[in-house]
Amino acid sequence: MGGVALLLVAALGLWSIWLAAAAVILLMVANGMLIANCTYQDTEYEGLASSAQTNGVQESAQVDMRTCLQGYAMIPVTLTAVVSLAMYKAESDLPLAGGDKSNLAKVQPGAVALLRFIGCEYVLSRNHDGAASALRFHSRFLTGMLVTVALYLAMLGVQAVCMSKAPPDESESSRTRMIRHIARCLFGVTVTLLVFAAVGFWPLILGSAAFALSLSGLCVLFASAAGRLCGDAASSRTLLQAHAFTPVTLACAFCFGCLMFEWVALSWGDEDARDVSLHFSGLEQALFAGTWLAATLAVRDAWNTLQTMS
Fold first, then answer.
1. Where are the domains of the chain?
2. pTM score > 0.85 for this model?
3. Exposure string for 223-260, b = 16+ CB within 10 A, e = fewer
């Protein structure tokens, strides 16, 4: 989670290269530790030893499949951080002055080739201005808003179907059910704010409020699922709902990022249009890493829940 958070901050333009480098180091260390510790020594005692060298102990290497799978599942997140670092470094190597692609290739051929390889060739020219970038960002915001609404309605439908078939959990307190209801209401308000922002009512303000509400609702769900809110016991249903609404929060974060970069493009004008477009690509990469990480955690928690129930 720390590496993904660093990538999100780097997308805002704050020490992008250094934060991306720190994210790469953090994720590579965590990834390496998971893969390296996927095996452990299983010690077996066989009673009296026949020789003093063995001391009646046999050690055999065993594989921890959960740690192994989690380590390899984290590789795309680490690779995304490496791509982000390479993108920021290549952009910093390009000259600040505008020019055609042939002149840029003569100055820094490696940086130009790398940006083309990762699909960021558009930042090599100055043909797009701040207004064009703002239009592109707002168009992506509208797409993100539609995805957010669709995900929210889908999660409500799945939750209704599951609740109608699953028997009520008598061990849950009324406070836990109330927390889940409040969280669903917060996400409903989030979707409503995004719709009004798409219509044209204070887009940046409503988008910021929607992102804050969705993040707050998700934190409340995870805190309640872990039994750290109001002293309630851990709830598997609340954990399931938290994972179900995580894509809604990620889609809302994308909408907020589009609105923020639209405002920056209009405020900074044509001079920094290339940098704004490149950092928006960094935001997309960070959100992809967050989505992949959320999916792996959801699969892990679902597997643990099934193992507990069986």
1. 1-40+61-126, 130-269
2. no
3. bbbeeebeebeebbbbbbbbbbbbbbbbbbbbbbbbbb
